[in-house]
Design goal:
The chain is of the alpha+beta class. It is about 50% helix and about 10% strand. Strands 3-2-1-4-5 form a five-stranded mixed β-sheet, covered by helices on one side.
């Protein structure tokens, strides 16, 4: 997917999310993010989209001014649909005003800028719609190709240099000497091999033998890797070193520890 496709998908995912949450109980607990209520989830989705719109639209070289202008969600849940769709529209306008090579700060450590943020907002929208589904009893459906793209975002972000450097506990737990995990979507084109090295986790988009091989539908891969669905509740086939896979999942707590 390119930047424009990601941004279009963000708007589509956000519209569904907004329809689900609008007017609902703000105090409802989010089972997939145990420290959050539905109000926290809505606030996070809309505020992040607005902050990214500032970063991209204003071509910021550091994030502090965007963070300082954090815009909270309305307390009245009947206003959530409008607030969320307006935030997604702000993001669309921001991305339309730049090109992929426009310099914009991002936390990846790779100076990925505009393409990073379009992909990151898409991944956020997909995963947090799963949170809303779990909270509100909605069926979660995601086309396999979109689930592959969201899984790519999750894995690429979690294995980025910036994530490694800013999450010492993650780095300490997952540094290794070449151990490998392979993830393979069976209903769309998507394969990834993560290799645990002493100073990073590398990610290759390739088929490979590995210490752990995890195969199954792309949506199951996304939800299990993002800790939105327990492996036992999925249709994934997990072969090899199960303890290594469990260690990996244990440290996929980037959002769920919020």
């Amino acid at each position: 997917m390119d930047t424009s496709a990601y941004v279009q998908a963000v708007a589509e995912q956000t519209r569904t999310f907004a329809d689900w949450v609008d007017g609902r109980d703000a105090t409802a607990p989010v089972p997939t993010c145990p420290k959050w209520t539905l109000a926290d989830l809505v606030d996070h989705v809309g505020a992040v989209q607005r902050m990214v719109a500032m970063l991209v639209g204003e071509q910021l070289s550091e994030p502090d001014s965007a963070y300082a202008r954090y815009i909270p969600a309305p307390a009245d849940s009947s206003q959530w649909r409008t607030w969320l769709t307006e935030g997604a529209a702000e993001a669309e306008r921001a991305f339309a005003s730049v090109t992929d090579d426009t310099p914009v700060w991002d936390p990846s450590g790779a100076a990925a800028g505009v393409p990073f943020w379009s992909r990151r907002l898409f991944g956020e929208a997909c995963v947090h719609r799963a949170d809303a589904a779990a909270t509100l009893g909605q069926r979660y459906d995601l086309a396999p190709d979109l689930a592959v793209a969201a899984t790519e975002d999750w894995l690429a972000t979690m294995t980025s240099r910036g994530y490694w450097e800013n999450r010492p506990a993650f780095a300490d737990a997952l540094r290794g000497n070449g151990q490998t995990l392979h993830f393979h979507a069976t209903d769309a084109s998507g394969e990834w091999t993560a290799r645990r090295e002493p100073d990073e986790v590398t990610l290759e988009r390739t088929h490979a033998d590995a210490d752990v091989v995890v195969t199954g539908p792309a949506t199951d891969l996304l939800l299990v890797l993002s800790r939105r669905r327990p492996p036992a509740a999925s249709t994934l086939d997990i072969q090899g070193d199960r303890a290594m896979f469990d260690l990996w999942i244990e440290h996929m707590n980037w959002v769920t520890d919020a």
